[in-house]
Write a structure and sequence with these properties.
about 150 residues; alpha+beta; Thiol Ester Dehydrase, Chain A; 6 strands
Length: about 150
């Protein structure tokens, strides 16, 4: 299990854009299960939508992508010398509205990992209901020569 302090060592994201609160299971090279607790204090609820608070679907996809990024960082050599960037989202399906008080279970698994490109299948669930599912393509970029502390 990884708490947020451990997650911050791998992901470059910070508040308000860090969308993974905890990793509850990780199998390097295979899969990850993580949690995002959705609270009424999320900054995006100020504008989406003030009267009917709905988590933007694109941020749910981003949460799944961040979980996939954690998996990828745990599956490659020299992860602190790499940056994982989102390259493509495909076959995304939005199936359930996510609101304050929901807990997202973020699941991601490798479909294919080549030298610099990773294909991940993922989904976000609220309870047993799928909120979002789709595929994510991520690119692995060398940070060599870039002084980015993580």
């Amino acid at each position: 299990m990884m708490k947020v302090e451990d997650i911050l060592k791998f992901l470059p994201h910070r508040y308000p854009f860090l969308l993974v609160d905890r990793v509850i299971d990780i199998r390097p090279g295979k899969s990850i299960v993580a949690i995002k607790n959705v609270t009424c204090n999320e900054s995006f609820f100020e504008g989406h939508f003030p009267e009917i608070k709905i988590m933007p679907g694109v941020l749910i996809v981003e949460a799944v992508a961040q979980a996939g990024g954690i998996l990828l960082y745990h599956s490659i050599p020299d992860p602190m010398k790499k940056l994982v960037v989102l390259s493509k989202i495909q076959n995304a399906r939005f199936r359930k509205i996510v609101t304050p008080g929901d807990q997202l279970r973020l699941e991601a698994e490798f479909v294919k990992l080549k030298a610099r490109v990773c294909h991940i299948k993922g989904r976000a669930l609220v309870g047993e209901e799928v909120a979002v599912e789709g595929e994510i393509i991520a690119s692995i970029v060398d940070l060599e020569g870039v002084n980015e502390p993580r």
